[in-house]
Amino acid sequence: MRYAFLCCHDEATINSWTKEQDDAVLAKRAKVTDKLAARGKLGPAVRLMPTTAATTVRMGREPVVLDGPFAETKEALLGFYLIDCDSLEEAIDIAQQIGRDENVVFEIRPVKLYLPKDEAS
Amino acid sequence: MTDVAWIDSLLRSARPQSVSALLRYFRDLDRAEEAFQEACLRALKAWPINGPPRDPVAWLILVGRNVGLDDVRRVRRIDPLPGDDQISELGDAEADIADRLDNSHYRDDLLRLLFICCHPDLPAVQQVALALRVVSGLSVKEIARAFLVSESAMEQRITRAKSRVARADIPFETPGAVERAERLGAVAAMLYLLFNEGYAASGGDQHVRAPLCDEAIRLARLLLGLFPGEPEIMGLTALMLLQHARTPARLDADGAIVLLEDQVRGLWNRDMIAEGLALIEKARRHRRPGPYQIQAAIAGVHAHAATAADTDWSEIDALYASLERLQPSPVVTLNRAVAVSKVQGPAAALAMIEPLAGPLSGYFHFFGVKGGLLMRLGRSDEARVAFDRAIALAHTPAEAAHIRLHLDRLIQDNQPA
Question: What number is the ipTM of this complex?
Answer without folding.
Answer: 0.91
